[in-house]
Specification:
The protein is built from 16 helices and 19 strands. It has 433 residues and is an alpha/beta fold. The protein binds flavin-adenine dinucleotide. Flavin-adenine dinucleotide binds next to helix 1, strand 2, strand 3, strand 11 and strand 14.
Length: 433
């Protein structure tokens, strides 16, 4: 092999990049991580909850070490119209079982911890500078990066720049995601004492709740709201499609949706008296399997959201567990290629095999149709929440008038929306889940 400055360079210290760097450094390889934020996590955002299974494979003792907020043991999914909410509320010891457990996290401390693990293993860090270009030789093989004035070379470069795939498009020729494959998320963090969080969300000490909302939170547009409890704060936000956000004629800009969501009668009491301490916005890929680009190149691997690895199922949002797993697989494949003295695409191909044999590509492929189902299913965000409200009003209201049998009360409400249409939509949704 020719002389290079490092065995490996990692671009970006999010979940994917930091874990890839950790794997390489742990194997004794010289690694440089270039992170454009002033520190790892400075620019990163998530909802968010991380499903722990992939983190545990990298850091078996993460539960003792990582800055986790709360173990999520209480799940809620809610349909909301402008004034009402119908929620499915679920809690079970199984949610806390090792391997199935999940935790709320705040990215600034969490990403700094991940970076510290890579640094402790021996990775070098440069923060506060963006990689502007991937260097290539005459044959098109990636040979390193250009960051500011510096050209730094490596046998292998791992690109983990997140969902804004500037370098992947410009230097690797990966396609720009379509607007329909991207969404925008906004989030606010509200401080609230731990005891009040536990009282409001009915969780034992140290445990937490995750809530997903559909309907009026996005004023009937495709998307949804989320809420996660942290140790002594609440993360509250929503995700809307890029086309909704970019539609100048939309009477409800995304920031207004969030304001209205916060004022909804089902949400306002949850954050009552809480102090707003943080506001952030970020894009999120939602195209699923169909937006996964090529991720193995001569001298370069692509990991995390740069490889399109994210999934919003409405009842589950997953990106961080994919990012951690792909970072680990990319780091390990790079180590194997370095040891074999072949970091060409052929030498790095074990990354693709590992990804395809793992939950990462398999889950994305299994739920491939879901993003298309959601895209064309406007009634899920408009009619359904209203229908659900009417059904539950009919169920719970007692006004002293003689009541009709339940079925007779329910059927007109369902028929109003078209029984066959409803059945067809449900069938299509179930088939894509
Ligand atoms: C609103 C919202 C809610 C979400 N909720 C959840 C959730 O609840 N659960 C879940 O699992 N996932 C969730 N996700 C998705 C999850 O946050 C991402 O999938 C995950 O963070 C991707 O990790 P990553 O390492 O690929 O990218 P990132 O975490 O984005 O890291 C990329 C890193 O690269 C750096 N970088 C970028 N360009 C350059 C450059 N040119 N030079 C140097 N550095 C660069 C960035 O600063 C950043 O540190 C959510 C996302 C959003 C936006």
């Amino acid at each position: 092999m020719s002389e290079t400055d490092f065995d490996a360079i990692v671009v970006g210290s999010g979940c994917a990049g930091a874990v890839a760097a950790y794997e390489l450094a742990k194997a004794g390889k010289s690694v440089l991580v270039v992170e454009r934020g002033n520190f790892a996590g400075a620019k990163n955002m998530t909802g968010g909850r991380i499903y722990s299974h992939s983190l545990k494979k990298v850091f078996p003792d993460f539960e003792q070490e990582a800055p986790l907020e709360r173990k999520i043991t209480h799940e809620r999914m809610a349909f909301m119209d402008p004034a009402a909410q119908m929620a499915v509320d679920f809690t079970s010891p199984e949610l806390a079982e090792e391997g199935k457990d999940s935790y709320s996290v705040l990215r600034a401390p969490f990403d700094q911890w991940l970076a510290s693990k890579a640094e402790d293993a021996g990775a070098e860090y440069i923060c506060g500078i963006a990689v502007e270009e991937l260097l290539k030789d005459g044959a098109g093989r990636v040979t390193g990066v250009r960051a500011g004035e510096d050209e730094i070379t490596a046998e292998v470069t791992i690109l983990a720049e997140g969902c804004n795939t500037v370098l992947a498009e410009k230097c690797l020729g990966n396609p720009r995601p379509k607007p329909s494959q991207m969404a925008v998320g906004i989030k606010q963090v509200f401080e609230l004492p731990a005891a009040q969080i536990e009282d409001r969300f009915l969780v034992p000490e140290g445990e937490g709740a995750a809530m997903l909302f559909v309907g009026d939170c996005t004023h009937g547009n495709v998307g949804g709201g989320f809420l996660y409890t942290n140790k002594d704060s609440i993360s509250l936000g929503l995700v809307a499609t890029i086309s909704t956000a970019a539609d100048g004629a939309n009477p409800h800009p995304v920031y207004q949706m969030l304001e209205d969501f916060k004022g909804h009668p089902a949400v306002a009491p949850i954050i009552r008296g809480a102090k707003l301490v943080e506001h952030s916005g970020h894009m999120v890929p939602e195209g699923g399997y169909d937006m996964v680009p090529r991720y193995v190149f001569d001298g370069c691997l692509v990991a995390g959201e740069t490889a399109g690895l994210c999934m919003n199922m409405g009842y589950q949002v997953r990106g961080m567990d994919f990012a951690v797993a792909s970072g680990q697989m990319a780091g390990q494949a790079a180590v194997r290629a370095l040891d074999a003295g072949d970091t060409s695409a052929a030498g790095l191909a074990s990354y693709k095999t590992a990804m395809e044999n793992s939950f990462v590509i398999q889950d994305l492929e299994t739920f491939r149709k879901w993003p298309h189902t959601m895209e064309g299913w406007s009634s899920m965000f408009t009619d359904y929440p209203i229908m659900v409200k009417e059904i539950f009003n009919a169920l719970f209201s007692v006004d002293g008038e003689p009541q009709k049998p339940l079925l007779k009360r329910m059927m007109p409400l369902v028929k109003k929306r078209g029984l066959f249409k409803l059945a067809g939509e449900m069938r299509k949704a179930v088939k894509s889940l």
